[in-house]
């Protein structure tokens, strides 16, 4: 599994992910970049078309559901890990991957809305599987790729979107508040089940509340830490950019060139965090009320901006300005992961910093569990389209949260991690083959938007 995982999240796959973003950016004449300001403004405005549009939830709730699934432990733990394994310069490559990821996330969402369908229960369903089935030129190949994507997404939802998140919550609460894992697991199980009973509308409401509140709170707390440690900020930023493009050997030559390490771990953690190219976020985009695929594409595209450019940057700058990067634990090993982030926040805020990180992980991870349930449910629904099967999925998904919170299942996590990466293969094929359809929608909306403006 380790060998398979290294390939799935290795240089070839990461090159394809970022390369697709570069290709789409050029194909779309840089419009996702040029319209980023418009996209951010659209997130916080109530559209005129809302009441008369098809869809299950508002554009904002759709974005928050997608952000719920992406803003998680990767923003707190992943950034710290990347800066240890790839050096502080990994943060720069996270930014670069995110910039091109804007076009990828935009294109995914456009196709999801364009090819979405209304199910018998009246709810919308969309995502790469429907775009592949309906829009792919070679229908048989499209159906095979659609099946594979839905299968990989269903399996990944139980691991990367569920067990790893509930485990992070229980571990963080155990270390900070000394609450036993089984109690935390039971509470998570009950809360998740209560939310899932209400379906996407309930998920959208909860995520629409938790994500913005926790996001703003974590952002402001990070800014406070950076201000307190401001004396180290400029040297830290200077080191970030120096290490991002340094051609010196890393770790005495054992790790290759520093730039290679920074690029590898920066891009990997960046893509893992914002999920641009994996095909997960478009499933939430398809549920939005909208009058044009491109409009929701722009709104959902901002998820990559908020996730990586804002939240990940705060974590990275907190670590860089704290002076904790490179510190060793009692065994002589570099402090990494959540312990590094806690140490960075605690350098300025003391025990309160540990509380902020713990609460942040708990709420971010809980919202990730909810967002990924919707991804997994819609993917599973594509494979087995029956109301009873959907209810069974929700019950099993809720129960699995308890397993994740109370058990260390490294093998299962590795498998789900692999499934998460394998989702990208059919999705990237879909994006490249249907890039012409994305361009048509993009340029059509641009004409209407310019005329209206």
UniProtKB/TrEMBL annotation:
Keywords: Cell membrane, Membrane, Symport, Transmembrane, Transmembrane helix, Transport. Pfam families: Na_Ala_symp (PF01235). It is found in: Cell membrane. GO terms for molecular function: amino acid:sodium symporter activity. The keyword Transmembrane helix applies. It is a multi-pass membrane protein. Gene3D superfamilies: Amino acid/polyamine transporter I. InterPro entries: Na/Ala_symport. The chain crosses the membrane at residues 6-26, 63-86, 144-162, 182-200, 207-228, 240-260, 305-328, 348-372, 392-413, 419-439. Its main location: membrane. GO terms for cellular component: plasma membrane. Belongs to the alanine or glycine:cation symporter (AGCS) (TC 2.A.25) family. This is Sodium:alanine symporter family protein.
């Amino acid at each position: 599994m380790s060998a398979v995982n290294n390939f799935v999240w290795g240089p070839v796959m990461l090159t394809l992910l970022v390369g697709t973003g570069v290709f789409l950016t050029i194909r779309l004449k840089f419009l996702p970049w040029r319209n980023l300001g418009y996209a951010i403004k659209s997130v916080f405005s109530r559209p005129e078309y809302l009441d008369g549009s098809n869809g299950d939830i508002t554009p904002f709730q759709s974005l928050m559901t997608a952000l719920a699934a992406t803003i998680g432990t990767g923003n707190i733990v992943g950034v710290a890990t990347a800066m240890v394994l790839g050096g502080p310069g990994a943060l720069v490559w996270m930014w670069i991957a995110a910039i091109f990821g804007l076009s990828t996330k935009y294109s995914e969402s456009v196709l999801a809305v364009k090819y979405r369908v209304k199910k018998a229960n009246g709810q919308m369903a969309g995502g790469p599987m429907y775009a592949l089935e309906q829009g792919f030129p070679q229908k048989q190949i499209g159906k095979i790729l659609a099946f594979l994507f839905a299968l990989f997404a269903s399996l990944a939802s139980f691991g990367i979107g569920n067990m790893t998140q509930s485990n992070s919550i229980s571990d963080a609460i155990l270390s900070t508040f000394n609450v036993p894992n089984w109690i935390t697991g039971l509470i998570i199980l009950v809360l998740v089940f209560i939310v899932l009973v209400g379906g996407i509308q309930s998920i959208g409401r909860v995520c629409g509340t938790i994500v913005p509140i926790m996001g703003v709170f974590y952002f402001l707390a990070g800014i406070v830490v950076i201000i307190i440690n401001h004396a180290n900020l400029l040297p830290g930023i200077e080191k970030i950019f120096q290490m991002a493009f340094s051609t010196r050997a890393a770790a005495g030559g054992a790790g290759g060139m520093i730039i290679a390490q920074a690029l590898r771990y920066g891009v990997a953690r960046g893509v893992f965090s914002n999920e641009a190219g994996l095909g997960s976020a478009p499933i939430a985009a398809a549920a939005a009320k909208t009058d044009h695929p491109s409009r929701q594409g722009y709104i959902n595209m901002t998820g990559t901006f908020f996730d990586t450019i804002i939240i990940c940057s705060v974590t990275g700058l907190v670590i860089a300005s704290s002076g904790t990067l490179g510190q060793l634990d009692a065994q002589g090993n570099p402090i990494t992961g959540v312990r590094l982030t806690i140490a960075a926040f605690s350098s300025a805020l003391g025990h309160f910093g540990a509380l902020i990180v713990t609460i942040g992980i708990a709420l971010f991870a809980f919202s990730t569990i909810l967002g990924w349930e919707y991804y997994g449910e819609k993917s599973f629904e594509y494979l087995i389209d029956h109301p009873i099967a959907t209810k069974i999925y929700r019950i099993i998904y809720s129960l699995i949260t308890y397993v994740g919170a109370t058990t260390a299942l490294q093998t299962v996590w590795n498998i789900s991690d692999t499934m998460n990466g394998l989702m990208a293969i059919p999705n990237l094929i879909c994006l490249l083959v249907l890039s012409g359809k994305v361009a048509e929608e993009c340029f059509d909306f641009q004409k209407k938007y310019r005329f209206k403006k």
